[in-house]
Structure prediction request, 296 residues.
Amino acid sequence: MASALTDKLSRLVKEMRGQARITESNVQDMLREVRMALLEADVALPVVRDFIARVKDKALGQEVMGSLSPGQALVGIVNRELAATMGQGVSDINLAAQPPAVILMAGLQGAGKTTTTAKLAKHLIEKRKKKVLTVSGDVYRPAAIEQLKTVTAQAGAEWFPSTPDQKPVDIARAAIDYARKHFFDVLLVDTAGRLAIDEALMNEIKELHAVLKPVETLFVVDAMQGQDAVNTAKAFKEALPLTGIILTKTDGDSRGGAALSVRQITGAPIKFSGTSEKIDGLEVFDAERHAGRILG
Ligand code: GDP
Prediction:
């Protein structure tokens, strides 16, 4: 646990040795440090406030067990609360649907949707032994359709063609039809992303959702996005019943505070994290490890 502490926190932990209880006065400095650490990790301010209030509630008046100091006890509470907020032990992709189980990928352009679609295809083929079809509903960028074709081949899955003159909902219907006739277990649907939230895009993905009736609607979000992740997450949550989050680019040098913000705003579990640009760079999300990283 010591590795999950800033130097300042460690010092405060030491200073609190010998005190038997966590009290308003002895945790104030600690909580201020935790707050700073979260803000430095780019967790959004309202999320930080909520989090600190919850930790304080849990901590105040708590007897300190055995050899722990109130500082150490508080750090334990902070770590547990962080991991709990981010949803430790969440399950794999839900495929409990009449085949094909449809998975809808949502998120901003550049978040890593297309890459992650292929990573998931590979995961479902190798770990879940499924027959997987992918399709792109990004009719605005022919290059995105081609990109999905390329990465789908790398994943060993099958790709369903689409063209820029088609409507996304028509592509969706045709892909489901094909998947049914050819006994695919899973259909992964990549979607258009814009650089910022825009109403037309949101309406389009809502329509797609209505047609596809996906068993999973996954929000793909860049861990490097920082504070902006909150607004993106809010907009997608309002538009779609999100069932999970995939946090990409966790191999970057950000402390990944976006994880906490996005998780709290959407209420959806973070299922996987992207750990490289490569097709096998996908891991089941480890909330505890990520909590340590956020604390710095
Ligand atoms: P989309 O616009 O949302 O479909 O995003 P792309 O899948 O095209 O990804 C955008 C960029 O991010 C590409 O250069 C990807 O290689 C890169 N990328 C995606 N996921 C990860 C990841 O987990 N780690 C790293 N380092 N790069 C990633």
Notes: The mean pLDDT is 89.
